[in-house]
Design brief:
By secondary structure, the protein is mostly beta strands. The protein has four helices and 24 strands.
């Protein structure tokens, strides 16, 4: 639902299903018609200050990260929230307190993994860290891994986290930091998907170490990787922002080169061509790409029962597209599904313990930073 319409509605109506009253304003009528044709209703749960990621805990409470470094603990109904940690984030540009993911053994160890951008000697980079949630505070905070090399600039940190289905390994995304060539550099961890132990060390058996790569590297040739998730079959899916065109959804396989910056289905921002992916070029092509771009934010693979028609499909938050995007996954293949206009930049998307879909606005360019629950339209 468009923010401009919500601003005109009473609070009680905002909190309901997203249906709107009739209006003599043609613009409002158009928005109402669009809302009525959506396959879901919208309920605003909470509002945040430039949020970046959302994670649910076993007791249905939520963790939310905010750009400036605050990590919030939010009640299941969204009515109460408290700051459980403030991290030393360099939040310039695309910098932020980024992903948050409870550990596979959270019920016992209360560990929470998260990522953030930080300055250091020689530049800035993305950090993987861990803490323990105790007495509604994040304690015992420790940095586990820092992507390198550190470079100047404020973009393409990435920082998404996914645990292997067996809970033994952590997959972490490190963007190319807008420097292009590190994505192909064997020793750099920039522009890569990394496989680490739960303590942030290179996982044993990573596929490229024998070829002279940094031992943490799982796949390479990536740009700005802002979504990472396993499906029910154990396939690892990733989405990343392309340049001018060429946003991608990739099936991540160990040891493969995904081409950036040597191959892309987009072009440089100054108009210079980049060779498209083509058979035999040595680069793994995307399963789905977009031109014009959707500017993909978070990635979620739906496993619930409230939307049975979408079980097993991928959902992507669209930033510049202000959309929720569905990708139809079928084994190791993918194709474009629906693209719904949400009227605001969508930074993250998550499945709740109730099987509803939750979308998180990012708080920029007319987006309020709201958390909105999507339920099936009856």
């Amino acid at each position: 639902m468009h923010v401009s319409l919500l601003a005109l509605l009473p609070v009680a109506l905002i909190a309901c299903s997203g249906n709107v009253e009739a209006s003599s304003d043609p613009a409002s009528d158009n928005v109402a018609t669009q809302a009525a044709t959506m396959p879901f209703t919208e309920t605003v749960i909470a509002d945040f200050d430039s949020p970046w990621a959302l994670a649910f805990l076993p007791d249905r409470r939520m963790l939310v990260s905010e750009k400036d470094g605050r990590m919030l603990l939010v009640s299941a109904d969204g009515k109460t929230k408290s700051v459980i940690a403030t991290l030393p984030v360099d939040s310039a540009g695309q910098g932020a307190l980024m992903d948050i993911v409870p550990a596979p053994g959270f019920a016992q160890n209360k560990q929470v993994y998260f990522s953030y951008s930080a300055a250091g000697d020689g530049g800035k980079g993305v950090v993987l860290a861990r803490g323990v949630l105790a007495d509604d505070r994040l304690r015992q905070i420790e940095a586990l891994f820092r992507a390198g090399p550190l470079v100047e600039g404020n973009g393409h940190y990435s920082g998404r986290i996914a645990f292997s289905p067996d809970g033994k390994y952590l997959f972490f995304t490190a963007g190319d930091r807008q420097k292009f060539t590190p994505a192909q550099d064997k020793q750099a961890t920039l522009g890569k998907v990394l496989r680490l132990t739960l303590d942030g060390k290179p996982a044993p058996g990573n596929p490229l170490a024998a070829q002279g790569f940094n031992p943490a590297v799982w796949s390479y040739g990536h740009r700005n990787l802002l979504g990472l998730a396993f499906d029910a079959q154990g396939n690892l899916w990733e989405q990343e922002m392309g340049p001018k065109g060429g946003d991608e959804v990739n099936l991540i396989r160990p040891g493969l080169n995904y081409g950036w910056p040597n191959a892309s289905n987009g072009s440089h921002y100054d108009g210079r061509d980049i060779p498209d992916h083509k058979p035999g070029d040595g680069y793994e092509p995307p399963k789905v790409s977009w031109n014009p771009v959707i500017s993909p934010g978070g990635l979620m693979i739906y496993a619930g029962n409230r939307f049975p028609q979408w079980k097993g499909d991928a959902f992507i938050g669209g930033l510049s597209s202000k959309a929720l995007v569905r990708v139809d996954l079928n084994g190791t293949e993918a194709r474009k599904g629906d693209q719904w206009d949400m009227g605001a930049r969508i930074r993250d998307v998550a499945e709740g313990p109730d099987g509803a879909i939750y979308v998180l606005e990012d708080g920029r360019d007319g987006s309020q930073g709201r958390l909105i629950r999507l339920d099936p339209r009856s």
